[in-house]
Structures
1.
Amino acid sequence: MDFNFSLIPNDIFREIAISEIIERNEKTVEYGLILTKEAASELVQTRTNELTNTGRVEFGGATIQNIIDAFYDSPYINQYNYAQTLHELIEIFYYYKNETLDIISDNNLIYYMKSYFNGSCQGSLELLKNRELDELARKVRFSDFHFSEPNDISEFYYEVDYDEWE
Amino acid sequence: MMNGNKISKIQKITRDNLSNEFYLQSLLQEALSCKIISEAEYKKILENLIKLLAEETQKFTKGESSSVRTETAKAILDSMCYKISIYLKSINNCDAAVLILLERPLRDILSSGNKLIESKLKVVVSLYKKINKNRINTPNNAYNDTIGKGLKLFFKEYDKDFESNETPVAIDYPLCIECSNYVGVEFIINYMISMYWENVFCSYFVDTEIHSIMQSINHDYEGLLVNIFEQTLLNSLANIIIGKPDKLKLYINDITDLYGTLKIKSDSELRKLFSDAAAEYKTQIVNFDDYLRNYISKAIDKFLPSILHALHTNTLDKIFATENNTEKSDIIHIINEKRISDEKFRELVDEIRTCENISDKITMIMAVSSIKDLIDILEANCFFGDEYLKLFTILDEVEFALLNKASGIKSERGEDHEWQGYFNEYYSKLSNTIKSKIILNSELLPEIDI
């Protein structure tokens, strides 16, 4: 007999996760961001798919909620691209959990994703995935990475050189 | 009430049907098929196991990650099952063990398993010390490396928290009876216990005799993956059967005698003959106990088919290590006083000095046929450190007695050479029986002029 993870009570976790995502609307509504129950359900499904694709198992966990909490105040997210951005961020998150060899904690990885997304990537998920996080993962794999939280998060934001406009 | 009902259905599960490696899994499977637990209870236990896995995974990631790779989760689960199994195995009644799974929280059972593993780890340390103390003095690399390095790895690498079912050792030396179906700390304990008793048995015989019979199988047995105990036991039993207890070496004429005794026996008579021969050890070996008795019995069961086959094909000399000569064949004939010429001696010393391999050095020194030459070589910086000890293992009792005498004479003169220190170290580790034989031989030897 071989134990497998099919016994993880996914249905229960799923319902809990959906309701927790909906609860986030109370906070995000201030920024004009709302997720319907159907959208929340799709996000949970994306998480399940990505866990399978990346060969990972999650017990309970609140990855989606953590991503929402980190990104809802981003200047590059609006109601129009909110759900789609979350889908892609979930995919990127699990992909880079593997690529960084589980060395970076959930919170730190989300922190970096947010910093790059709002900063040097200017809201581009493509740049986030293929340039910044790729570079970060490479550094981690070659032991050339030391986590340090900048004192001022603004250093990650793209600084427009106003002089050029004058 | 449930407790009473379930326990009354006594011993539906037999221990022999359960796996040693996957005990919990096989216990649950058996409990289900014997209907000691219902499908619902079975599913409940598995669900509790998954909940416990979630907690253990949190501990593993130190709360920093809510997800882990599937293989990591599987490894943590296997480790948990192993710890739970260790505790359940300690309960002799398998049915009662199932009941405990139903009634006690899995977290408690896991903690009990953890405690048992910790106490087993103390046993491992104590066994390792014992093995180091009674190890066989042999040049066999697999044996020496397994004790010296392979088993030591366990103390450094074993992770009792999350990989308790893994066995991080580099064991090359094959035991006579393999400890199959065991993993983790249980494997290492079983391996060490078997090795300890193999050593106890071999320590009854002179190291040089064992070395000699192993060389009869293959002159370069140092590099072979062979079990020393098995060959020692085979030769010893054969010697008991032909009426030469205490001996190990067999000569061609002994094999002829053995063949004459064995060929007229039926299979069962043959088994009885070997078992009766093994019973002799009870009076001969001081520490002979039930474990060693059973171990020897299993070993006999293992090699009996080969003996039967050898009897049919008249190849007993391939099973028992046999000396080619009918007379005693010493490894180094150093009693002979024929010294080699000065020029040849210098060449030999230079060759030995430049050689880096101890086996080759020993082969070269076998050209020496005089005790005086041997001592001159020992004092010519040809050997260093442990190399002396390896050299001494190939000496037989008479040769050893000669060196002992020479060392004594030199000490009386106030001479103190490096080899004497190692010689005394090696001598002090010999058993009292061997020491008394060497002393007796020393007394019988003529005066030597060195």
2.
Amino acid sequence: MKNRTVTIIDYGMGNIGSLFNAFNYLGVKVRISSKPNVIEKSHIAILPGVGSFHKAMKIIKKNSIDNAIKNIIQKGDYLFCICLGMQLLASKSFEEKPTKGLGIISNKVKKFTLKETKNKIPHVGFNQVFFDKGNKLFKGLQSGTDFYFVHSYRMLPENMSKNISKTDYGIKFLSSFVKDNIYATQFHPEKSQSNGIKLLDNFLNIT
Amino acid sequence: MIRKRLIFTLLFQNDCFFLSRNFRLQKIGNYEWLKKNYDFSMITDSVDEIILLNVSREGAEIDNFCKIIKTFTKECFIPISAGGKISSINVAKKYIRSGADKLVINSNLFNKVLLKKIANTFGEQCIIASLDYHNLEDNFLFYRNNGSKKINLNVKEIFEILSNLPIGEIILNSIDMDGTSNGFDFSILKKIPRSFQKPVIYAGGAGNYKHLVEAFRKKEIDSISTANLLNFVGDGLQEARKQIIRNKIKLARWN
């Protein structure tokens, strides 16, 4: 519902401004917070991020944001994770050095290799996102819609088959998933023009 | 599969946008001029990315430039890169905080300490290495500081260094073709070593959609940038995009 407030979790990494603007554009109230007590009370929280997994986890733990995020999920409120935000949900990443993630999803995060993709790394630009009918995050969008990606790592798709999307970059990888009250995209909806705005609007309509 | 990208580059100095021809700047108009001649919703309808460059030559004008970044990110929901005058991690942070997604680095490209700092904070996918060059009969000379300082490295040495820098993409800009509208000079593409596996943005010379189509057909080129404010005024960019797609170049489609 549109009269709700979206809380963007600010842990000092990545471009929060464009997310703020995108939600603002969609007519909801937006606040940016780094305070765990504010974050955990949110009905709708966004975990953004670009950059280093290792550094992100360090800051998140130091500021007790990890517990705040887990509380949101436990309460049944809504969490939307973007790019590095999606990866942080994982159990472990191998960026820089092996680092434990939030462990909310048991999968691991790995770097693309030239051998598996036969493509340049990072994967940067618009690419098609394929999903099954009925995936409510993509309501009103056609499978194969373009979204903007910029990343070298991705979450491995183990044990994920329902409400996911895949994207082909030489190998098919997990480009989004919906699991209970957790929504996650490897791509940046806030950077994907009208396609992304539609997806964010879908998310707001679910909450 | 991954789409090719059309990028619009805007040069900013003293509250105005500039046209560059062979790296000599010509004032075109202020923000109001830009809004009048390029509907922002139309820009984001027609290009896949925007690069904003701070080309102020006296003084750094960081704060003024940040205001421009903020204005763009309010209305354009596509990736926005910012470059120019990134001499410290603080400037990098200011640009990112203002809404930039990526940083274009030219003059300080070989400052390894700075690049590492930026990459450690924002990730290496955040850094676009910018190389400006002259082509003297297939002998390539590279420059920094708005084309004013020569870099004493040949093309082979440059790419060797680039391979070891924490960067996400490179942008190659021909000083000779810059702003001429005469089409691209593709000769440097042959010099990119096969082992170099970063996305390449190509710039310098686009005058019409045919030039863009020709460049998009090159397998070495992932993206094309045009900075010519006058070639695509009005619905020029939109028309160019239509023609590019009509020529079977795979660009992103909007809902």
